[in-house]
Design goal:
The protein has a domain of 184 residues: Acetylglutamate kinase-like (Carbamate kinase, 3-Layer(aba) Sandwich). The chain contains eight helices and 14 strands. Strands 5-8-2-1-11-13-14-12 form an eight-stranded mixed β-sheet, sandwiched between helices. The chain has a two-stranded antiparallel sheet with strand order 3-4. The structure holds adenosine-5'-diphosphate and N-acetyl-L-glutamyl 5-phosphate. Adenosine-5'-diphosphate binds next to α1 and α8. Keywords: Amino-acid biosynthesis, Arginine biosynthesis, ATP-binding, Cytoplasm, Kinase, Nucleotide-binding, Transferase. Pathway: Amino-acid biosynthesis; L-arginine biosynthesis; N(2)-acetyl-L-ornithine from L-glutamate: step 2/4.
Length: 263
């Protein structure tokens, strides 16, 4: 099986011009097949503030009302996606920018209202992901750049967390490729002490995860990231790494740095 890197990058890197440049230069230098999934929640919040669209999150998911879905469609599917594509093109990487609606890559279901109405938020059934369409692009030597948007097959765009999209894509493409999923962010990995970059935990299995939760060493965005990492591993993805966007090149070799997630 050929190697495929599914690389997720979040808002803290995208929002920093210098860090984004370093990251995209690394992406362009990866010789194997690769897909980039980007977030950008932080930027949507900043632009929303300027437009008087308030951002509300519950359990790490944005409440996405009518104005908000228009906002995130513009920011994720337009501004961020196309900036990344243009920069990769300047680095001789043949990037093609997509949402989950393009080529029907990620059909999703609008989240049912239980205690909370999340609005236009989409949940993915991994078996419905059109991995064969992504494979066709990869085999034509395109590098797909995916925005965190899906669709409901009834004409509506849905907002879906970028870590979840990366996990679902990695699972779906594991049928065809030996997949390494890499979550890139601004820290050296999952840390024993979030203030200390020298406290990287090299390996997290479910036992260690339970222990870290008990010790209350994990909070905020790292929690759904680790949950998505385990979901990928449990569904057959070969390797999942959480590491620094600056260390991407090294993390596409066997000599990885950061945190490896195992069963
Ligand atoms: N133990 C930990 N190790 C690393 N990061 C942690 C830890 N606990 C909490 N975090 C927080 O999780 C954040 C990463 O999640 P998030 O901001 O959602 O990233 P992204 O936007 O890149 O997906 C870090 O910036 C950090 O503040
Ligand atoms: C439903 C939901 O919460 N979607 C996310 C999608 C963006 C994202 O995941 O961005 P980061 O990776 O930068 O956090 C949001 O709108 O914030």
């Amino acid at each position: 099986m050929n190697k495929l890197f599914v690389i997720k990058v979040g808002g803290n890197i995208i929002d920093d011009e210098a860090k984004l440049k370093v990251f995209l230069t690394s992406v362009a230098s990866v010789k194997s097949h690769k897909i980039v999934v980007h977030g950008g929640g932080k930027i949507a919040t900043e632009i929303g503030n300027k437009l008087n669209i308030e951002s509300k999150y519950i359990n790490g998911r944005r409440i996405t009302d009518d104005d908000t879905i228009d906002l995130v469609t513009m920011v994720y599917g337009g501004l961020i996606n196309k900036k990344i594509v243009a920069q990769l093109q300047s680095l001789n990487c043949n990037a093609i920018g997509l949402t989950g609606a393009d080529a029907n890559i990620i059909p999703a279901k609008k989240r049912a209202v239980k205690d909370v109405d999340f609005g236009w938020v989409g949940d993915i059934d991994n078996s419905k992901v059109k991995s064969e369409n992504l494979k066709a692009l990869l085999e034509s030597n395109f590098t797909p750049i995916l925005a965190p948007l899906t669709h409901d097959e009834q004409g509506h765009i849905l907002n879906t967390n970028a870590d979840t999209i990366a996990s679902s894509i990695a699972v779906a493409l594991s049928t065809y490729y030996d997949v390494r999923l890499i979550y890139c962010f601004e820290k050296k990995g999952v840390l024993e002490n979030v203030e200390d970059d020298n406290s990287v935990i090299n390996l997290i299995n479910k036992e260690k995860y339970r222990q870290l939760l008990e010790e209350q060493k994990l909070f905020a965005g790292i929690l759904p990231k680790i949950d998505n990492a385990f979901a990928a591993i449990d569904a057959g993805v070969h390797e999942v790494l959480i590491g620094d966007a600056n260390d991407l090149i090294q993390n596409t070799t066997n000599n990885t740095i950061g945190t490896l997630i195992t069963q």
